[in-house]
Amino acid sequence: RKQGLHITGELDSPTIELINQPRCGVADIGEYVVDGRKWNKNDLTYGFHNYSSDIPQADCRSAIRQAFDLWAAVTPLRFAEAPISSNPDIKIIFATGNHGDGWPFDGQGGTLAHAFYPPPNGGDLAGDAHFDEAETCVIHEPASNNPRDLVTVAAHEFGHSLGLGHSTISDALMFATYFGPHRYLHADDIAGIQSIYPRPRQSSKSSIGFNTFFNKAH
Questions:
Q1: pLDDT tens column, 89-124
Q2: Which of 81, 135, 141, 157 is catalytic?
Q3: Residue 5's beta-bridge partner residues?
Q4: pLDDT (tens digit, 9 = 90+) per residue, 16-40?
Q5: 157 assigned to active site
């Protein structure tokens, strides 16, 4: 059983239907899989090379913030926006077609976005997330899988930026195929990311009203 399909050895209707669904451009490599690379620090910066033309800049920034917050809530990681001129750890780009990284986008449908694993993978591209500008993205939760929910797509790609591969569990955020809005982490997503970035145990000496390990991003 792979990506929610029963292995039949035939190109049956369920397989064809899944093939035709929009998906992430990162190759499938197995289970929820940790790539083996991770950031060697907990404070990470991200910056925008440009913004989606579909939504106001402030809304785009808010969607990206929400996507990072999903991962910050279950790890010791903290994410802060920084100017692109400061060479942030994770660079966010909206582009079409051949955009210089060797992985050209294919227009509307098909590949929605892709991201690069943490250093040393990809050299200067390590951690970066690229979104296909040919797709129509929104920040509300659409009733169908088109247009694309930017929070969902971004949160999935940032999973790769942090070191996660694709999950074989269809209910996981890190499943390769996009089925519509998915603004939460499945237990499989949490187990995967915490195997890379474990949360520190809460001290029994923490005073009431103050949690030493409060993980809200700033």
A1: 999 999 999 999 999 998 998 899 999 999 987 789
A2: 157
A3: 2
A4: 454 445 545 555 444 556 877 899 9
A5: yes
